[in-house]
Give the backbone structure.
Amino acid sequence: MDKPYFRQIFNPVLESPIFVEGLPGFGNVGRIAAHLLIKFCGAKPFAELYSPSFPDYVSVNSKGICHIPHYEFYAAPMEKNDFIIMTGDTQPSFDDVVAHYMLCDEILDFVEKYGCSFIVTIGGVPIAGDKAEVYVAATSPRLAAEFMEKGAVIYSKGRIVGATGLLLGLAKERGLEGVCLLGATTGFRADRGAGFAVFKFLMKAFGNEVKEGL
């Protein structure tokens, strides 16, 4: 393998889907929120992305079966909004800037083929305290204000590293709209509470109420 490639499982039929990315990061918030969304929507895996820029190890599941690192894409046809959800168990090294740009461009090319024009990236932001706040950064002042009115706090004067930030920035350069939702977390361990808070906010923002017992 000398370049990224996609493995297609099936070709979903979706109508103007919203692309949602949730990968490992601070508090594992993005990955937790993405998996909650997959469960809530009953989403089905339809494609995988492999890259030589991913770390040189294999993951082994509870049955002793190994697989190399990859990103997974899930399709979720819903009554109000269709979703394409991307998650995975790793990212390229933060030192490999070219790999991050290459992969993010490949991802945006892929989801645009399905008619995606709005993206949501999810991550965690290390904040001291116990408030379950959700922060937002957006591709336009209008979107930032819109999500602030829905209950998010503006994330200002900071950086969003990795795919969570870069996907949003590159999407803006392509003329796509989108937001990044960041869950407040201490960041030292997997923070299911922060992941659930972002997932719940996301669902409410798009007109789906979520019960606490999910």
User: Anything to note?
Assistant: The chain has one domain: 5-205. The radius of gyration is 16 Å.
